TrEMBL record:
GO MF, one annotated term: histone deacetylase activity
Protein family membership: Belongs to the histone deacetylase family.
Lineage of source species: Bacteria, Bacillati, Actinomycetota, Actinomycetes, Micrococcales
Pfam families: Hist_deacetyl
BP GO terms, sorted: acetoin catabolic process; epigenetic regulation of gene expression
Protein name from the UniProt record: Acetoin utilization protein AcuC
Organism: Xylanimonas ulmi
Involved pathway(s): Ketone degradation; acetoin degradation
Length: 391
């Protein structure tokens, strides 16, 4: 049994919407170059695998066949289908799109199955996390929903309960919608308030469909939420509901776009806070699931100075080898960044460790983040027999 199974090959860089699109494959390339130069690829217990594109039958466990056919047509003949989100500004058509998106699905399903079968304790697909794709439409840079497909495979293989934790700045709407009526899946999304950011959903009153009330949990944070309050919000909601749910496995999405330098959100969450978020999820997996944890990438558009740092730290966390914030980043990696981007790369992983006030310290009605957290707790916690006001 390996400690961690990581999906990676250069073929994953083919998920490319073209020059100038925010979802640049350079973020994956720079991340994996940093992972390699930090020595993580040679760490004991890490297994690196490549995967072929997923077959249609696998994709159709979470997508309509007609939609898959439309993606194939767009991929092969360049035929746009705006009603299905294909050929839009967010999801422009590109040659090979079907295979590129299907490979992300195959990767997330591969590591999920390895974790469930006991071949790996943790699974990683940083190219995955395409949480906006819906059953019949592309959305928000996401063509196929690999996270939903991984959860579906876990359920089909016998998992009784799967917890999905989404730390992306944008609401994990596609995954939530897929399992809205399924009490076997808990979806928890910590995101910027949908009134101020795409996709406009994820309100705290959205708690799940009939028979699944309480299994959709949404923490909608105000713009400019900083690292400490963000971690306070995560700690105030996530551990309590996940413990009550008692999952067999945790799937998490680690979009790095909550950072202040990210151009597509208004949150202010630093690298160290996002590392703490991954650590919290990791600890819950060991506490509740015998370590069964599937970690996916997601958003993140500060390609040079945020995404590689957050996702390298995620890989290190899964290997039980957390990186020191003050660790000097390899000179060769920094030189490569300068050569391909013309930008000056970070010299260390992070600046300083973040501190936060725990929810047990008391609710502050004058604090807009505290009000957002309490709104979620009021809607969700009573459904689990929990006190919205106190730990």
């Amino acid at each position: 049994m390996s400690l961690a199974r990581l999906v990676w090959s250069a073929q994953l860089l083919r998920y490319d919407f073209g020059r100038g699109h925010p979802m640049s494959p350079a973020r994956l390339d720079l991340t994996m170059r940093l992972v390699e130069q930090l020595g993580l690829l040679d760490a004991p217990g890490l297994e690196v695998v490549s995967v072929p594109p997923a077959p249609d039958a696998l994709i159709e466990t979470v997508h309509d066949p007609a939609y898959v056919a439309a993606v194939r047509l767009a991929s092969q003949q360049g035929v746009a289908d705006p009603l299905r989100g294909l050929g839009t500004e967010d999801d422009p058509v590109f040659a090979g799109m079907h295979d590129a998106a299907a490979r992300l699905v195959a990767g997330s399903v591969d590591v999920a199955q390895a974790v469930w079968d006991g071949r790996a304790s943790h699974g990683l697909n940083i190219a995955g996390g395409m949480h906006h794709a819906h059953r019949d439409a592309a959305s928000g840079f996401c063509v196929y929903n690999d996270a939903a497909a991984a959860i579906r495979r876990l359920l089909d293989d016998g998992a009784r309960r799967v917890a999905y934790i989404d730390l992306d700045a944008h609401h994990g709407d596609g995954v939530e919608h897929t399992f809205w009526d399924d009490p076997r899946v808990l979806t928890v999304s910590i995101h910027q308030d949908g009134h101020t950011l795409f996709p406009g959903t994820g309100n705290p009153a959205d708690v799940g469909g009939p028979g699944a009330e309480g299994t959709a949990v949404n923490i909608a944070l105000p713009p400019r939420t900083r690292s400490g309050p963000w971690l306070r919000a995560v700690e105030a909601v996530v551990p309590a509901v996940v413990r009550e749910f008692r999952p067999d496995v945790i799937v998490s999405q680690h979009g790095a776009d909550a950072h202040a330098r990210d151009p597509l959100s208004d949150l202010r969450v630093g690298v160290d806070a996002q590392r703490h978020g991954a650590h919290l999820v990791h600890e819950l997996a060991h506490e509740l699931c015998d370590g069964r944890w599937v970690a996916l990438g997601g958003g993140g558009y500060a390609v040079v100075d945020v995404v590689p740092l957050v996702w390298s730290s995620l890989v290190a966390e899964a290997l039980h080898r957390p990186l020191d914030l003050a660790l000097p980043l390899p000179a060769a990696w920094r030189a490569h960044v300068a050569a391909v981007s013309g930008l000056d790369a970070a010299r260390v992983i992070g600046v300083e460790e973040v501190a936060w006030r725990p929810w047990s310290a008391g609710y502050d009605p004058a604090d807009d983040v505290d009000r957002a957290v309490l709104a979620t707790r009021r809607h969700v916690f009573p459904l689990w027999g929990l006190d919205p006001y106190h730990d």
